[in-house]
Write a sequence for this structure.
């Protein structure tokens, strides 16, 4: 029996449900918590597939379910496909022993037929062993362009959810939630200013917050619109 390779992939420090602003995705969050909690022998309840545009929070919510599983005393492994593809395919052997396996950006495997086959085999082992599976991608599995029809069939086997994007008002509330998590007070006017000038996705807004946080600590200045203008070059 081959020994399973173990690698800890980096998590975002705030990637928990506590700091995820659900807005119109509250039902998805509730379902994810139920998904990991329920014991089920039905294959359709072992697999869940989330799709949504770049920067809408897929990686956050996938990492959050891993944290949640850990709090429940379950074993969970988060695997970003971009890094997974750099590893030998033997890395997948034994992963089915986890309670939950999470693969982020699974659509990146579209360029590698051998990895598609390896993933298909892994999914089958997980379903047999009772390991639950959670995937994310930009598009539904049928629209990704996978060369392996059997893989598409497996990814469509369970529940399929769309992660809905936030409106500008909701992005503002999300930014203020994450800002408060860092101990940075942020007025409505400032949050609105940042959201309107950033690219319109969650990831870009949060990268902006991270940069502003570092600069404000370095210069020992609080966040104001003039300071933000100067730092971001707006």
């Amino acid at each position: 029996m081959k020994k399973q390779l173990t690698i800890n992939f980096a998590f975002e420090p705030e990637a928990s449900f506590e700091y995820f602003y659900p807005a119109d995705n509250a039902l998805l969050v509730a379902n994810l918590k139920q998904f990991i909690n329920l014991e089920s022998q039905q294959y359709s309840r072992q697999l869940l597939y989330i799709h949504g545009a770049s920067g809408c929070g897929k990686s956050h919510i996938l990492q959050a379910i891993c944290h949640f599983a850990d709090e429940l005393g379950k074993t969970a492994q988060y695997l970003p496909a971009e890094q997974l593809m750099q590893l030998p395919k033997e890395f997948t052997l034994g992963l089915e022993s986890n309670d939950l396996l999470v693969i982020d950006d699974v659509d990146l495997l579209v360029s590698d037929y051998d990895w598609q086959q390896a993933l298909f085999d892994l999914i089958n082992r997980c379903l047999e062993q009772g390991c639950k599976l959670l995937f994310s991608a930009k598009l539904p599995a049928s629209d990704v362009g996978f060369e392996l029809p059997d893989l598409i069939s497996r990814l469509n086997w369970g529940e399929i959810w769309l992660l809905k994007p936030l409106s500008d008002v909701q992005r503002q509330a999300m930014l203020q939630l994450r800002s408060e998590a860092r101990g940075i007070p942020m007025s409505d006017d400032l949050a609105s200013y940042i959201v309107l000038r950033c690219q319109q996705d969650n990831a870009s807004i949060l990268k902006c917050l991270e940069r502003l946080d570092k600069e404000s600590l370095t210069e020992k200045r609080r966040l104001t619109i003039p300071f933000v203008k100067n730092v971001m070059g707006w």
